[in-house]
């Protein structure tokens, strides 16, 4: 049983109202891979880094069961870098710098051992890269999950729609769902997006939780109330990684399994935001995950 995630492994500089973290480890591949490893290993990682990326971080990933055969290092070049700043309430952020560096020429060629991956997460990247990975995987995948954002809707909509039509699950936030569908009501938006090809749609609503839509039904999961939010970067990637990690562990793609996967995704994402970078995930124990899972289930029980 194999799980693959493709996404950035990068450096971030993050400023909030109370703190700043400079050149910490970030990237959708980093967050999603680490989150998935709580539920299922190995995690086959596909990404690209520069000469500047620390080897000790790669060693930590490998110790978690994250396979790095598909992690390409380019000597003489720098890793992808993003710098952003959040408002005090974390409702929005401003990007101060985006340096593509090695990502500008990224054309992933999957290792032979990755081609039979059965559970595939296409984390936020160009639709062209996501399509390339899907094409290489072919028919071996039992479930494919696509995470995307409004930037690709603005700049590469035709390519994005082609990839959406190829996957089983699409995960986006509420603003992106409205933009993609042209509908304000999330129910109407979901109905239209499901005609674009995916069997399932997950709409993330930040502090208001997440919703799962399909022809099998609708499921709504609340967010966990948090006393402390340090850095929301990577929360969506953790959600997607934990979501697919649980599904791979259970070896089931039933609607009930996806519902539980959303709860676990929400749990891991809630821990991620408590510290900068991967720091909270590194100290997280399975007992912590289970405790917060039970708390969230209790919140939904009448």
Outline of this structure?
This protein has 302 residues and is of the alpha/beta class. The chain has one domain: 3-Layer(aba) Sandwich (UDP-N-acetylmuramoyl-L-alanine:D-glutamate ligase), CATH 3.40.1190. The chain is 38% helix and 25% strand.
Mean pLDDT: 96
Q: Indicate how many domains the architecture comprises.
A: 1
Overall CATH class: Alpha Beta
What is the succession of H and E elements?
Answer: EEEHEHEEEEHEHHEHHEEEHHHH
Unreliable stretches (pLDDT < 50, length at least 5) are none
Reported CATH architecture: 3-Layer(aba) Sandwich
Q: What is the terminal separation in angstroms?
A: 36 Å
As a whole number of angstroms, the C-alpha radius of gyration is: 18 Å
Structural class: alpha/beta
> What is the helix content?
25-40%
How many extended strands? 13
- Based on CA inertia axes, which overall geometry fits? globular
**Percentage of residues in DSSP E strands:** 25-35%
CATH topology: UDP-N-acetylmuramoyl-L-alanine:D-glutamate ligase
Number of helices: 11
CATH homologous superfamily designation: Ribokinase
Largest sheet: 9 strands, mixed
Order of strands in the sheet with most strands? 5-4-1-8-9-10-11-12-13
């Amino acid at each position: 049983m194999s799980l693959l995630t493709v996404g950035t492994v990068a450096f971030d500089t993050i400023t909030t109202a109370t703190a700043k973290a400079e050149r910490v480890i970030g990237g959708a591949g980093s967050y999603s891979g680490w989150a998935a490893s709580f539920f299922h290993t190995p995690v086959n990682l596909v990404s690209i880094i520069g000469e500047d990326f620390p080897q000790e971080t790669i060693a930590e990933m490998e110790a978690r069961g994250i396979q790095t055969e598909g992690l390409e290092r380019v000597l003489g070049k720098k890793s992808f870098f993003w710098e952003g700043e959040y408002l005090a309430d974390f409702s929005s952020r401003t990007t101060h710098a985006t340096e593509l560096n090695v990502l500008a020429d990224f054309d992933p060629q999957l290792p032979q051992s990755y081609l039979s991956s059965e559970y595939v997460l296409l984390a936020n990247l160009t639709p062209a890269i996501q399509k390339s990975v899907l094409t290489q995987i072919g028919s071996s995948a039992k479930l494919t999950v696509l995470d995307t954002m409004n930037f690709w809707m603005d700049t590469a909509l035709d390519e994005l729609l082609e990839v959406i039509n190829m996957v089983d699950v699409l995960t986006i936030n509420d603003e992106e769902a409205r933009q993609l569908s042209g509908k304000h009501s999330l129910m109407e938006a979901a109905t239209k997006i499901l005609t674009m090809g995916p069997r399932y749609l997950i709409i993330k609503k930040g502090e208001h939780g997440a919703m799962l839509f399909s022809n099998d039904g609708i499921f709504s999961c609340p967010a966990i109330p948090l006393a402390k939010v340090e850095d929301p970067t990577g929360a969506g990637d953790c959600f997607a990684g934990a979501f697919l990690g649980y599904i791979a562990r259970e070896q089931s793609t039933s609607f009930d399994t996806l519902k539980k996967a959303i709860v676990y995704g929400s749990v891991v994402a809630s821990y991620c935001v408590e510290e900068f970078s991967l720091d909270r995930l590194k100290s997280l124990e399975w007992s912590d995950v289970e405790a917060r899972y039970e708390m969230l289930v209790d919140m939904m029980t009448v």
